[in-house]
Design a protein that fits this description.
Length: 143
């Protein structure tokens, strides 16, 4: 288990009201920080975790509006994290978008089978990711 997992709640300083929080679970701290910065600039609150166990704990405690999840985590496979989120009554309604560079031929099917809403292959278009985030949050809110 990685002890240096970072959990942070950072409101966007340029926005008066932040409406949605997004949990980013990725062991690449540079990627996590860049994505967190971009999302905050769009008016989102961000939470981050650098490993799967920490991501699960943050999701259960903070109940974010959406989870962005890498599959290559140091402690728990991202597919297992997604499955645990989907199986837990306190987190099962949180949409999960997988962000991964994994190139297995069946990975998209596997990710969907364990509960991910969208699968986005790295590197990705940040504008397209933002559209998917807004769509997933809107779909969840309209349930």
């Amino acid at each position: 288990m990685q002890d240096n997992a970072v959990v942070q709640l950072e409101p966007d300083e340029t926005s008066a009201t932040v409406q949605h929080s997004i949990l980013i679970v990725d062991d690449d701290s540079g990627q996590t920080e860049a994505l967190s910065y971009r999302l905050r600039s769009q008016g989102f609150q961000t939470l981050t975790a650098l490993c799967g166990k920490e991501g699960l704990a943050v999701a259960r405690a903070q109940h974010p509006h959406l989870v962005l999840l890498d599959l290559g985590l140091p402690d728990i496979d991202g597919l297992q994290v997604c499955e645990r989120l989907a199986d837990d009554p306190t987190t099962c309604t949180i949409p999960v978008i997988v962000l991964s560079g994994m190139a297995r031929p069946d990975i998209i099917r596997c990710a969907r089978a364990v509960g991910c809403r969208y699968y986005v292959r790295k590197p990705y278009d940040p504008s397209a990711l933002l559209i998917l985030i807004e769509s997933a949050i809107h779909e969840t809110e309209s349930w």
